[in-house]
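Hi support team,

I've been running sequence recovery on a batch of backbones for a student project. Most finish fine, but this one hangs at about 90% for roughly twenty minutes before it completes. I'm not sure whether the input is malformed or the queue is just slow. I've pasted the structure tokens below so you can try to reproduce it. Let me know if you need the job ID as well.

Thanks,
M.K.
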């Protein structure tokens, strides 16, 4: 597909060595943002919002228009810029997390990411049957210490941007297949809000 000039976009990921990144991926309305907010509060660590929602909500409000191919790289750059900025913030975080203590000589500094460029790549291939090469390369190169795939076990919540309430199971299966195809290790996360947080805390304790 034709589109904007890929050379105009810098999709490089910058993660300080002290930061442990958790990416939360999944179909629409499966609790990704809620989980990131809850984990951020639990660990007193920053979380990265989904830039695509901010970008597309502004486009919808001003033009009543939805996502197009030409939006993909600007969204990708906005997402990674936000992630890089908050990764630096996480590295400077002096709040002790609930894992470890203030006396820990090497405390974990967490960053919880509500999506990643991998998710944007998956959606691009799902909707357009293709993905900008620069986005694919960046999505596959970026690293996360833990990838979570949300189960489809939360109620659908409609808004201006969500459009596929009956495709969540199919979309979730596609996410899993793409993660497996690209050798991205992931764990499924489900249950109610408390159960999800409890499970992630257990996993992070084991990964310390």
């Amino acid at each position: 597909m034709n589109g904007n000039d890929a050379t105009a976009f810098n999709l490089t990921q910058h993660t300080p060595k002290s930061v442990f990144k958790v990416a939360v991926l999944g179909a629409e309305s499966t609790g990704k943002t809620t989980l990131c907010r809850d984990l951020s509060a639990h660990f007193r660590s920053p979380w990265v919002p989904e830039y695509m929602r901010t970008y597309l909500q502004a486009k919808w409000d001003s033009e009543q228009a939805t996502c197009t191919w030409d939006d993909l790289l600007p969204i990708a750059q906005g997402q990674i810029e936000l992630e890089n900025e908050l990764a630096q913030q996480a590295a400077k975080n002096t709040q002790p997390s609930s894992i470890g203590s203030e006396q820990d000589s090497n405390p974990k500094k967490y960053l919880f990411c509500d999506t990643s460029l991998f998710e944007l790549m998956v959606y691009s291939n799902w909707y357009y049957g293709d993905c900008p090469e620069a986005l694919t390369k960046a999505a596959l190169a970026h690293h996360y210490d833990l990838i979570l795939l949300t189960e489809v076990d939360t109620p659908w919540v409609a808004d201006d941007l969500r459009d596929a309430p009956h495709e969540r199971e199919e979309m979730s299966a596609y996410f899993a297949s793409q993660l497996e195809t690209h050798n991205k290790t992931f764990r499924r996360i489900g249950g109610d809000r408390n159960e999800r947080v409890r499970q992630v805390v257990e996993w992070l304790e084991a990964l310390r």
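--
Follow-up from support: It reproduced on our side and the slowdown came from queue contention, not your input. The chain has one domain: 16-207. No action needed from you.
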